[in-house]
Amino acid sequence: MKNSTLTERGQVSVPASLRKSMKLQPGQRFRWQRISDRELRVSVETPPAQGPLSVLGYAQKLRNGPVRRTASWMNELRAGEK
User: How far apart are the C-alpha atoms of 14 and 23, rounded to whole Å?
Assistant: First the structure.
C-alpha cells in the first residue's frame, strides 16, 4: 500500500512507483468516486478515441502570425513560381 498527503491546496501526489508501473503521464485525467464516508475510488480516465477529425485546427497551434486564408497562401506560392 502506498500513502500520499493532501496539501493545503487540495492536491495529492501519485507515488512514483505507481506512476511508472501504470505508465501515467502529465496531464492525464482521473475520476474520483466516493465509496463511503472514509473511502474513495480513483480511476484513470481513458482518453477519447482519436479519429481523423481530431487533427482539425492542429496547425493553428503551430502558427506564430495572424490567420491567413488559403487564397493568401496560394498567391504567395504562385508568386514564387515566376
Answer: 12
Choice between 61 and 40, residue whose per-residue pLDDT is larger: 40
Take residue 63 and report the three cell numbers written for it: 502558427
Dist. CA 24–CA 30, nearest whole Å: 10
User: At 50, is the pLDDT very low, low, confident or very high (cuts 50, 70, 90)?
Assistant: confident
Q: What SS3 state is found at 10?
A: coil
Residue listed under C-alpha cell 493568401: 72
CA gap 78, 81 in Å, rounded: 5
**In the predicted structure, residue 63 carries a pLDDT above the cut 70:** no
User: In the numeric block, which cell numbers belong to residue 11?
Assistant: 492536491
* Nearest in space to 45 (alpha carbons), one of 24, 28, 62, 60: 28
